[in-house]
Amino acid sequence: MTRERQSVSTPDPDPGGLVPRTGMPAVPPLPPRDRSPGDPLPPLRIGVSACLLGQEVRFDGGHKHDRWLTGTLAQYCELVPVCPEVEVGMSIPRESVRLEGDADSPRMVAPRSGVDWTAPMNAWSRRRVRELAAEDLDGFVFKKNSPSCGLFRVKVYPDKGMPARGGRGLFAAAFAAACPLVPVEEEGRLEDARLRENFVERLFAWRRVKDAFAGRWARGGIVAFHSREKYLLMAHSPRHYQELGRLVARIAQEPPAAFRDRYLGLYMEALGVLATPRRHANALQHVAGHLRGRVTDAEQKRVLAVIEDYAHGLVPLVVPVTLLRHYVELLEVPYVRDQVYLNPHPRELMLRNHV
Ligand code: SF4
Q1: Same domain? 186 vs 306
Q2: How many angstroms does the Cα of residue 90 sit away from the middle of ligand 1?
Q3: Residue 4 pLDDT greater than 90, yes or no
């Protein structure tokens, strides 16, 4: 027998019949951040599923505190908690919800009571995403598997048959669609050292590239920006690096807005390609090439041997990068001294100790 669905047009005061409710007060939007080129970088501003910050907002009144987020990343970021289910008006605790129907356009339903939250969650998500976009977020970390927050492989229950992991939480889907360039990740995937390093690298990269195009940007500033990013881009995707280079060569001929949009899209797409040890080794060898004639042959050989060790998995990336940085800073090697690749994120995060 099919149960009749009860859809919610405004937030139901007690959809699952579960009291007490604590609810979250309406979240006041954070002020936008107007900056001009040259202003000091403010801390990154990262949206986070609120339960990952230890807030007891889950359906069972619990949380999923992620200590790396609050203990480590929080030192460099302002974390902005968002709990879609509580902010849309669900209670704590509450009947859990799940995705049902078509994975491309799923419904959000509380299966026991039959309450359908799809319309209010989609409407609230659109509104909240607009607010978050205006707050100039630098990234978002979502809770995995959630019908609201899950970014990848969320379970969807079809009308007939077994559930499949092919969906995306309704809020996560709205955010990703409205802010396609903003780096997003799930907390579960951040346990993988390479994905974690890539995500943090993209957070800082997105901040830098937005800063480069802030206000009345000048062509010369963008050419200099692109030049500083050379080896970082090469470590991710030589193909994108070349394409960006061709685009920058035409900067004077392109309408500024079209150029900016094309550059931003290609740049973030490039950094979304995971850097491999082979491509890192290639970038490192290019950096090492700038030492030639400034160090002895023995020192040059030693540097290349350490890069080889890294390429063969014998030492982590931090080893050749630290060695190169040492020579580049000591000898004040022009051009590579300013390369972001040698310092893409705070060293204290120790992200390159594990890749
Ligand atoms: S996963 Fe998302 S909706 Fe669920 S409790 Fe956490 S923040 Fe709230």
Answers
A1: no
A2: 11
A3: no
